[in-house]
Amino acid sequence: MFNTVKRIAVGLAALSISVGAFAQSDRAMDLDALLKQLEEGQFAQSQQNKQRERDFQAQRAEQDRILRETREKRDQMLAQSEQLETQFEENEFKLADLNGALDTRLGSLKELFGVLQQIAGDTKNKFYNSVVSAQIPGRADFLDKMAQDMGSSSKLASIEEIERVWFEMQREMTEAGKVTTFTTDVVEAGGEKVNKSVVRVGPFALVADGKYLEYNGVTGTVSELVRQPADRYMDSAAELQASSGELVQFGIDPTGGSILGLLVQAPNLQERVEQGGVVGYIILIVGAFGLLLALERLVTLTLIRMKVNKQLKSKEVNTNNPLGRVLKVRDEHPDADVEALELHLTEAILGEVPKLGRNLTIIKIISVVAPLMGLLGTVTGMINTFQAITLFGTGDPKLMAGGISTALVTTVLGLVVAIPMTLLYAMLNTRSKNIVYILQEQASGVIAERAERG
Description:
Belongs to the exbB/tolQ family. The protein is an alpha+beta fold. The protein contains 14 helices and 5 strands. Helix content is about 75%, strand content about 5%. A hairpin with a 2-residue loop joins strand 3 and strand 4 (about 210-215). The longest helix has about 80 residues, at about 30-105. It is elongated, with a radius of gyration of 55 Å.
């Protein structure tokens, strides 16, 4: 029934198509032609369906074959897995038995090899940092390889390896007591590699061309210190290299370079002054100006005092000194009474006092202002420190070191300028007053002499 309906539907569809085609092409088609066309279309459709069924059957057979092969492969893998698991368990038992037998046979030797491995690792680190390796390279590599082999694969060291460990340790101790000279490549401070003659002082120091060297165990290179220590250490290094066997005083670093590194990083005088910043330079300029004034006054007052002393011993009046100019007033007023002469002498002394005390007030002001300028630098440095703390916190002390250095260095510079200026002012003021006292004393003598004569 269903097939009949289907055929009628197909016929109607074909009929509608034929009618549409007839309307479009204006050609007549009889019922026999229409029926024949319908039968041909039905036959083609049937052939396509049969071809699809054959393709489906072929694909299904292929899929069945693949499924069958996959199941067979799975069964084989499962069987192999069970076999491997059984073999693994058996190997575990065998390995446990063999380890037990090995431990039994080793006995105390196991502890020996453990200590040997530990000593090899410690000695390796010692050789990496020892300057002796600059002359005898390759020692640390052997110890490193042996320690890794004993640790990773539980490989036992041979007699030759044990003897070499002992030999290398003995050689290190022997070389530690020698001062030897050898030739090696040295990386200079500018980056150029030059073959030089190097003096090794035990395991403590390397010296070449009067400069200290450092050994890098990681790269195995010898290089000059970019920043050398003080000149007195450099002089001793040059003397050591030029020595032909005689005793030379030489500073060594028993810490393996730690003390030398700190000594090299210590700032010199110029760097300390630079830490003071602008305020520090101003303090130094003011101090230098005050020192020049003080030296000028010291030389001037010394010469004046020598001339005054010479005038005291001479009866002739010389106007090249304050005392001679004061005594000349007496000769210029031979007939003046005591009161008039006293006034003339006082006037002459008062005229000499400013010359003797010239620039002393400036020196005194500098001695007072210098510590105040140091205090200004201290406040400025602390402000910078607090700004760094506000921005970056207190996690890194190096961020605050700049402000603190400025604060401390300016304080020191202010005191360094103020203390000498205060002492110089006191000394120069005393010398000036002593000369004034001599003038007053001689003037009083002249007045007394004129009063007795009157």
